[in-house]
Amino acid sequence: xxxxxxTGGRVIDPANNFDAVADVLxxxxxxxxxxxxxxxxxxxDITRFDVSGKIVCPGLIDLHVHFREPGQTAKENIATGIxxxxxxxxxxxxxxxxTSPAIDNAGTVALIHERAAEEGTVNVxxxxxxxxxxxxxxLAPIGSLKKAGVxxxxxxxxxxxxxxxxxxxxxxxxxxxxPIFDHCQDxxxxxxxxxxxxxxxxALGLRGWPAAGEEMIVARNILLAELTGxxxxxxxxxxxxxxxxxxxxxxxxxxxxGEACPHHFVLTDAAVAGSEKFWAxxxxxxxNFNSQISNLPEWPAYDTNFKMNPPLRTARDREAILxxxxxxxxxxxxxxxxxxxxYEKEVEFDYAPFGITGLETELALALMQLVHPKRxxxxxxxxxxxxNPARLLNLAKGTLSAGADADxxxxxxxxEWIYNREDSASKSxxxxxxxxxxxxxxxxxxxxxxxxxxxxxxxxxV
Length: 462
Ligand SMILES: [Zn+2]
Hints:
- The chain is an alpha/beta fold and 462 residues long.
- The chain is 30% helix and 21% strand.
- The strands form three sheets. Strands 1, 2, 3, 4, 5, 16, 17 and 18 form an eight-stranded mixed β-sheet that branches. It has an eight-stranded parallel β-sheet with strand order 6-7-8-9-10-13-14-15.
- α8 (240-251) links the parallel β13 (232-234) and β14 (256-260).
- The longest helix has 17 residues, at 212-228.
- The two termini are 14 Å apart.
- The structure holds zinc ion.
- Zinc ion binds at residues 156-157, 183, 235-236.
């Protein structure tokens, strides 16, 4: 049971600096060996899986997803969230605590662990809230959240405005060995902005969310990380200034880190003005997209699938995020998978909720913007999806070392396919990338030695 021999793939395991055509032998849910011709070592009756021509890497980890359970299961639940993750090639996900009720107590953490265990496929890790009910006013019981098994604390979706309270949170987090994740948003600067404050917000008559609203809190976090020694991880970075601040702080050895989501390094605020404006203004430079698509995807102005928080920014910001990913300033890739029902998104731009789904498209978009144009190597991209998030969260994951859990992703970086949101495994369809021709796709997702999803078998096996 849970034994498998993967043969002939190009195995890339950045944690061990391994990159070669090799077999991967999995015995009883653990990695037994990675090397040439492992057939002789494998039990005779082992299931073989020919992955020639494919990439084999440690199971991908998405450390920023919203599965909406408990409380908002019309948008998503743990079962459907897991199904979307498996299809995207993800073997582990980290759930944000802004559920209803919020994950601010040990009981809710246990509930999510239980629900995930019932599904028994993708590993589901949980973050706890920093403040009670994510209200930014009073600290949650961080010690008991840690005991219940949270891997980090965050008020994601919200941002603690009181710097003194954030300082105390940092001190507790450090004491309990937990990283703090922060959704960086200064409320006084952002107020009720719905898109990036700039040319397009003016042209479209929408209220602006200035880049400084993010940069201000990134700077605050750097100062508090220095003051307290806590590990602060800045979520879904969108602005050039944030990358510059982080780069400078990391040079000085400050314990801060950052993540980027594909929509922020593929799209720009011009997309809110509609597809025609986007392709004419900022879409031209997107490699692989224009050259390969005869009919460019179309969408109208004010399409709420282009509304997220933080918002899409300018081409200059997009370039800075890409540069930050290339030079290692931003060491983690994730989706911020944020499902919403059609009826919630099908309203005026001002009233729609922020957020888009992302688990099924992020691997392809990362390959297309980072690897195919040679901004970073395949190994570097894989590290940002595996060992880097594992290290930040102290998870014994993200590597194919002998003895490690046999979480493995097999993908084809060259496969071309068209993403159709109606085919998504997620309960929600709020993706801006529907109809896009993508390049690169997961072929199989293996958790603890069990193939939980594969291209041939489109259903998630339990
Ligand atoms: Zn957020």
